[in-house]
Write a sequence for this structure.
């Protein structure tokens, strides 16, 4: 049944995943668009750097974020003159999830843009459309399904995020505990029933997000064919 | 006054270099040649879609390319209406939204284009549901709606089979008359070029190997794969129950009536191997056209043929060398040209200007 601790974890997980997806959407889609159409020296370096969260342990990123935002860190209160209040708060969980889901969103968006035939954009420009109009009237509508899929994949990645989140935001029930960190907590105190419950909800939400994203990806592929 | 198109540029392609030098005031320039001769690259260079050309391209006083001065005008600023082989219709927009894409104002224009190209019934259709011929008309319409200074048509009917190409050709001729936009038409179909263009460049491996009026350049000696068609122009002088008379300028040709009306201009195709030659006026023939003519040119050999004039227009006739010998045909000789009404195909007609 839904006890209040579970409801808290569920609500916080959805809130963190939604906000981290919103945070990551613009920069990831913009970089995906840039990499889909531009070739420049050092491109592979940018690609590899942007993919870093995919192949580095999340705990390493959690550690880096912790170092960056702690009191004497380069983005900490001493350096900035004010406190971003990210450590041990749900806002920290949003940041950690955003960083970890960035490469997935960016790569899926890049593929969505690559699937838009460049000649259609060229035709739009030939018909007098400005760059912004080409983007707005041709590129984005044609990439739409792929971009929605990218955001859903980012959302599901954020739902499952553990390693970086637990280091930056901690695992405080009712305040920063998500489904993912809650499972760890339940295991540590030997509450298997609770772990199963949390795992079940995680699987259900993750499945719904990924399944929906697959549906959009399929539509984006069939629109192309 | 027609704008001058000046081409003086080179463009390296895989295998050879496209090297063109030509200046023309033609309102309808045809570019003819086998596939892989550089025709599409020429159009893409004109459209500004293919970079890397060296030299000069000017149209109507505007410089599109001048590599010495570092000028290469981007596609959007050339004001061309490009209709590529693959049409490139926007798949997320319906027919009308495709037409309106490049149309900034002038409500009347879109309606006129819809009417002239007979695509009004398609206006709300998803472009994915259009047939090949419909797609071509929509692509042509979209280019026209952008009020281009120059229309660039790259094998606009290339993907269609021959009967369908012939059904669509009248729309192009009609659009040309109605919207009066100068155009460059790339095609490997000589009949198409002869029906639409007043000047033609023949390309081979990136070079111009012949240029001039289609009637003098596009002859049976050219690289014509499936039979040469004469293209004749005239005015409809009478319309009967099943046939119509087309005045070619002193000589009247009986053609199938189709949708012709008296006073209209008509473009007629006659295959060179559908024409008979007689030394004396034959009688008791079913053929409706028996026209006196004089032989202007005679070519012997495996592709034997002769040229006569109908009105002032050349008509090529293909025949065997044995027939030439037996009839003792020679340049200057008087003959009768025999053509069945049904062998004349009406390619296009339009109200006279």
């Amino acid at each position: 049944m839904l006890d209040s601790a579970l409801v808290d974890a569920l609500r916080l997980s959805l809130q963190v995943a939604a906000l981290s997806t919103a945070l990551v959407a613009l920069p990831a889609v913009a970089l995906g668009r840039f990499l889909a159409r531009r070739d420049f020296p050092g491109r592979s370096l940018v690609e590899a750097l942007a993919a870093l969260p995919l192949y580095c342990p999340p705990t390493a990123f959690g550690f880096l974020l912790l170092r960056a935002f702690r009191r004497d860190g380069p983005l900490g209160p001493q350096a900035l003159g004010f406190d971003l209040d990210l450590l041990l708060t749900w806002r920290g969980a949003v940041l950690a999830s955003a960083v970890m889901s960035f490469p997935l969103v960016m790569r899926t968006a890049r593929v969505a843009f690559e699937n838009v035939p460049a000649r259609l954009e060229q035709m739009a420009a030939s018909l007098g459309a400005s760059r912004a109009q080409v983007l707005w009237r041709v590129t984005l509508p044609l990439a739409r399904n792929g971009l929605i899929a990218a955001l859903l994949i980012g959302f599901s990645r954020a739902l499952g995020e553990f390693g970086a989140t637990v280091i930056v935001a901690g695992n405080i029930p009712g305040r920063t505990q998500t489904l993912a960190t809650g499972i760890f907590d339940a295991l540590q105190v030997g509450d298997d029933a609770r772990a199963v419950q949390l795992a079940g909800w995680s699987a259900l939400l993750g499945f719904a997000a990924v399944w929906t994203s697959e549906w959009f990806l399929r539509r984006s592929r069939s629109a192309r064919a | 006054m027609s704008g001058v198109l000046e081409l003086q540029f080179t463009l390296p392609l895989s295998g050879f270099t496209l090297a063109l030098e030509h200046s023309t005031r033609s309102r309808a320039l045809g570019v003819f040649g086998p596939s892989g001769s550089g025709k599409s690259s020429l159009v893409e260079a004109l459209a500004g879609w293919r970079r890397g050309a060296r030299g000069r391209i000017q149209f109507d006083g505007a410089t599109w390319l001048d590599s010495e001065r570092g000028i290469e005008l981007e596609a959007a600023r050339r004001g061309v209406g490009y209709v590529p082989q693959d049409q490139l219709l926007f798949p997320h927009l319906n027919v009308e939204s495709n037409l309106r894409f490049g149309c900034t104002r002038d409500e009347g224009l879109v309606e006129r284009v819809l009417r002239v190209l007979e695509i009004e019934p398609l206006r709300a259709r998803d472009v994915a549901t259009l047939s090949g011929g419909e797609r071509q008309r929509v692509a042509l319409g979209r280019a026209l709606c952008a009020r281009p200074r120059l229309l660039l048509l790259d094998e606009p009917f290339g993907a269609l089979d021959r009967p369908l190409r012939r059904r669509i050709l009248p729309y192009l001729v009609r659009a040309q008359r109605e919207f009066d936009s100068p155009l460059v038409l790339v095609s490997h179909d000589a009949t198409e070029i002869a029906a639409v263009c007043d000047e033609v460049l023949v390309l081979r491996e990136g070079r111009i190997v012949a240029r001039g009026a289609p009637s003098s350049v596009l002859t049976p000696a050219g690289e014509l794969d499936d039979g040469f068609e004469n293209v004749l122009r005239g005015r409809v002088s009478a319309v009967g129950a099943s046939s119509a008379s087309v005045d070619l300028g002193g000589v009247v040709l009986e053609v199938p009536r189709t949708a012709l009306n008296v006073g209209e201009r008509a473009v007629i195709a006659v295959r060179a191997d559908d024409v008979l030659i007689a030394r004396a006026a034959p009688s008791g023939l079913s053929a409706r056209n028996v026209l006196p003519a004089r032989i202007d040119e005679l070519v012997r050999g495996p592709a034997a043929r002769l040229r006569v004039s109908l009105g002032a227009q050349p008509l090529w006739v293909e025949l065997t060398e044995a027939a030439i010998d037996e009839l003792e045909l020679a340049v200057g000789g008087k003959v009768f040209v025999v053509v069945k009404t049904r062998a004349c195909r009406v390619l296009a007609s339009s109200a006279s200007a």
Notes: The domain at 4-56+89-224 of chain A is CATH 1.10.3720.10 (MetI-like fold). Chain A has one domain: 4-56+89-224.
